[in-house]
Amino acid sequence: MDIDANDNSSTNDPTYFSYYAHLQHQQNMLQDFVRTSTYKSAITQLSTYSISGKLVMDVGAGSGILSFFAVQNGATKVYAIEASNMAAKMQLFLDFAKNNPTSKNAFLADKIQIIKAKVEEINDFIPQVDTIISEPIGVLLLHERMLESYIYARDKYLKPNGTMCPSMGTICLAPVTDSYLWAETMTKARFWQQNDYYDIDLSPLAEEATKEYFTSPVVGCFNPNSIMCNEKSVTRHNVDFYTIKLKDMLTIEIPVEWEIKYTGIIHAIGGWFDCEFNLPAARRDEISSNNPQTDLKNQDKFGFNNNLSCLPITLSTSPAHTPTHWQQVRFLLPEPTAVNYGQKIFGLVTLTANEHRSYDIKFDYSISNGLSKAFDFPSTNSSTFIDSPPKKSALWYLNEQVYNYSYNSDMALDSKPESLGLYS
Asked: What CATH number has the domain spanning 11-165?
């Protein structure tokens, strides 16, 4: 099915917006210290140039926390766009602030206009704004396809050289060894191989079960020591929120080239993301030329420097950093791949937007034989081989992600599926 770049609507929209109308889900995000504190830091750091005395739009405002941060930092007015019924709950904050002028929240009074709509369907007049803030991020950066709404808002409502907060996302991919998770998943799939389950043969669904289990990404934290490539060869694909076009969000191709750092077995591809908060390049250049000397002592009451020296600010969901509610994600290979130290894996990860507010992910790859690359770029669409090494492929559906709550990442490096006969 072809997907319109100007329409990221989905049959899943009612469920999606209903989910985010629940306070327990908003609380889960608010209690993510890395997420909330990084946004607080970023908005404070950007306040001198992009928030104080400015018009701000908050896309997907949710509980309103980012709007509140903007008002704390001097925003003249914030247009809080929220399509779910969380909009009514956010209004309770504003009503309380207006009716209780001596309360801690009094600063919010008459500063925020809540608009209950998708940003693509706003009927109210909104002027162009100086800054757009949003937390449009899902698993592997892209899940839920909220980034498209963020970009739509940029194209329609942001002033020239206005600020996007965040400004860039980076998708990170690396091969990982995770024998425990692979063995556990295969054991679950093999339940359907039974031919005498209460006198019923379950095996007609065995192939379908294996396919279902191994096309479902597994969300959860994993041990950074399970990464099998050198740090410098971890794939990092930047998505610049200032420049990317909506149509370019429908298909994203990411070439990979991993140099293996130790002999072992690759069971999955590990994925995570980083987000960066920065001013647009033209604005940074303008400020730098007008202020050649940066005052590092110019701190606000929170201890933040309102100058360029502290930018960019980065939010990382790397397995080597403090865990977040996004965690990381593993894409299990249906057939684990044995590799030797120094070998390289060349391939292409293709993410294709689907109608489930997510992406289908295809991975075509091969291991170099030591002579040359397995893929012939730059024509990533053709994926032409040289040397004719064996090509392998895997497919996952990001919207079918599962969570493994009983998983212990420390076990990943110890268990041996081969001893259980699960590789055959």
From this structure: 3.40.50.150
